[in-house]
Records
---
Amino acid sequence: MDAEEHDRLAERETILAAMLAAAERLHELVDVVQTAPSDDATLLHEVAALLACDEAAARTVLAMPLNAASPARQRRLRGELDEVRQLLT
């Protein structure tokens, strides 16, 4: 695997992990969104802090539909995350 492919997979891993964490902690994510100041930068920072991810992953989480938190979608996210992690090792 070349460096560019590795970087792409590592970024995908970060995003998938953040999406899965958001799905598992949806109630906390909603609380952050409801109580955050109205500026986008602060909201991104607070979501990133909650999910221990970078702001690009937080932006993806904020754009994901609520049905991504369903048990079936969580299983798919977990499976995809496992696949990416295997490729990275």
Note: The mean pLDDT is 94.
---
Amino acid sequence: QSCDECGTVTCTGCNPRKPTDYGEVVTLSTHRDWISCCSINLARNYGGACTPGYVYETTERTQHSGRGYCEVEEHGSGRSCSIKTRWQNRGLEGADCEFTIKQKRVCN
């Protein structure tokens, strides 16, 4: 007998079994923030540990307004769903941005 990537063969079958939602990508958290004027250049951290049984997948960025700069500088990795973002003005322009952190279901 063989088991999927989540389990090992035991006398009673595979233990543990692959979760039914294995591979599904879900939103862990959404963070909306903004900067205004002037001479701003800062880092902001969002997120934290992924939910047990999940790993970091990606972060989606939406800029709602402003011509300022807001980008993901460091992505999460493994079971850490923490991100570091960089915020900067462009002239007198600030930025209103939203970051949505996604995680993927894996073995427990």
Note: The longest strand covers residues 54-65.
---
Amino acid sequence: MFGLMSSSCREVVLTDQPFQRVLINDLSQPTRSLAPTRKTDAVSLTLSVSGTISRPVALAVDQLAADQKRYPVRRDTLMAGTYTNKIFSGDYYGKDPTELIVTPTPGTTGSLTIERY
């Protein structure tokens, strides 16, 4: 399994892969990461989060449907602190592309590594 690693990534697009890693070193603005249409249906969505943040950070995953609408798949908030492989997991069935959106509270410092599978 391959993922894309990029320091301070803003927009990340991968080929059809069941795994994605996003490294965020700059929490001064939201970060978006797109996973395109899959060839087979997914049956779950898992986020594994590691890193340290000084203020709360919102995590959102949206399904980008063929009708151009966004449908919420998951919403979570990371409170200030240090995380090592913090798991957020749930059912998700579909092939449509999904977008991970990481939105820090203004003034947040630190870094995060988010693995999505």
Note: The CA atoms of residues 21 and 69 lie 25 Å apart.
---
Amino acid sequence: MEVYTPIPDDVVPRTSPPVRRTGWVILGIAVAMVAVLVLRYDPQPGMRYFGTVQTRFGPAGVACGGDTAPRCGEATGVAFAQCTPELRSYFDDVLRN
């Protein structure tokens, strides 16, 4: 049967208090930086452009966010390159009904 005796605290190698303090400061700064990145993360981008589609009224850009389209995640905007008479007539009829 083997008996183990505990190792005395004064024999265990430990770093000096200034080194430990510096390590805790560096760890705290790293945790704070990660927390800032996590809190600032936005899963919905401010602007997303999906491309151009050809419609019966002409080419149109499809996007969300930005100045001309709804916020991403809520709706998608369609912006026509030019307002043709057919396009104006279509939307006038839709708005009247």
Note: The longest strand covers residues 47-55.
